[in-house]
Amino acid sequence: MQDHEEWESYGVSQSSTESRPDPHNPHPESSGIFPRESSAHNTHHSVHSDKLTYFRDGRRKIDYVLVCEYSPLGSRSLSSSSHGSTSEKKQVKYENWRSTFMSNLVRAGLHMEKEVIQTVNKKCVSFTKIHAPWPVLCQYAEELNMRAPLQANVNPVLNWSEKLLKSLRIPNLMAQNVPNKPPDYFKGPFKRSKIHKYVGSDNTDTFFSNAERIRIVYEIVSTGVYGEKKKGEVGVDRLVEEGVFLSAFPLHDGSYHVPKDYSDPLNARQVLYEYWARWGRWYKYQPLSHIREYFGEKIAIYFAWLGFYTGWLLPAAIVGLLVFLYGVATMNTNQVAHEICTIGESITMCPLCDKELGCGYWKLSDICGYAKISYLFDHPGTVFYAVFVSFWAVTFLEYWKRKSASLAHYWDVMGFKDEMERPRPEFAARAPFQKINPVTGVNEPSFPKSLRKTRIVAGMGLVFLMISLVFIFILAVIIYRVLVSIPLFQNSALRSFASTVASVSGAVVNLFLIMTMSILYEKLALRLTSWGKSCKNNK
Known about the structure:
Layout: H1 2-9, E1 12-16, H2 39-42, E2 64-70, H3 72-80, H4 86-107, E3 111-118, E4 124-131, H5 134-143, E5 147-152, H6 160-167, E6 185-189, H7 210-223, H8 236-242, E7 247-249, H9 268-275, H10 288-295, H11 297-329, H12 335-342, E8 348-349, E9 362-363, H13 368-377, H14 380-410, H15 425-430, E10 433-436, E11 443-446, H16 449-490, H17 498-531
Parallel strand pairs: 1-3
Antiparallel strand pairs: 2-4, 2-7, 3-4, 5-6, 8-9, 10-11
Helix pairs in contact: 1-4, 3-4, 10-11, 11-14, 12-13, 16-17
Protein name: Anoctamin
GO cellular component, one term: plasma membrane
Domain Anoctamin transmembrane: 291-531
């Protein structure tokens, strides 16, 4: 376990909730040696009140957490013996991977602190807290071409409805005064040589947002090597997939709950909970600036689209309601329904099935109720609504393009391109060799084309089988509607509603089948993606 001792001496501080020593580190206090920042950087640190998201010193923020589980007694026996069962050898391999991975993270400049607890089943769960110091943040911010604030933008961005109501001097019930609004800046590419020109560079604690810190740390742990690089033994995602770590995640900014006697300023999570993630705020403007600051641009643009789409559904819903009310108002004037309900009493209709099945002759007036209900959804107003929705959809798409471009410019991500996606951990774990990607020039795990083609063909056969299953379900729903409508038509009291009941119940059955198949499709797609040897998730 030499590698494990090495990364401990590089700067991992440990503590345990148990009095017994941790088998991975018999002297936890002796390993508390950290690569410190320069005194110039330390002058900006202050002890924070919310210690749950900081190291024990209350100064260094926890940017990422790695969780693993091990057996104390097993660890001692494994370290003293090179022989054992298959599970013991697997544990030794996992421990070597963990120690090598941790050593490489410390060499990359990350600070670590370990907390160990003992579970009911006598196993130890280790939580390794990771902190990225200022020099590491600056180095990777420049490598990732992140953008830094140059000058404050004092021009507020208003919604069109906010502008309209303000110009008409009408009180805006949708507006809300959200505290701690993130300032807006004009930004430029981050350069360490120009650090003094950026706004807020004198405070190393707050210069990088939590989302930016998490992005940098995730970049480091995603590229950290724990085994043979040629075999793709790289990154925390594969370690979690292999079971070396139970989980790997960043932390929220403390608790979202706000006590009644709380006097400190709200953290970002509390602000979002109080002014956004509550049922009572459904009619309020979304605090997109706060969402972007906390979750990043990708999540913020999703909720921007969701709010924009919901707002645009309002005119479509109003027009649809007016069309429906028009149908209700003119239902008694419909000539077809009127004749079915009046003259239909003297018109005898042929049986819908054989006499042996119980079907007999019936009056046209028996479907009077069905004719009136059908008119509500099939009258001249619905034709107008169909045309309206077509124009509404085109207009919505064009205005969303305008809105998204405006947000991209406002958030300074107009020319942003997605980062190069890494191979999936499952793919990298099973790939027999590596080859250079002709597009990116990066050495990536690869499978033989012959094996991949064989599995793709087999996967296509399975897809066609699922398509056939869909057609079988459609035919089954049609047969179900026929079987349900026959006994209803035999009952004179239910005859007028037979078609409606059959259609509605058939739709419910169809919905159930669709929901069931969607769950099956999702699981099948994941299995086919892994089995078909797709390198990237977006493929």
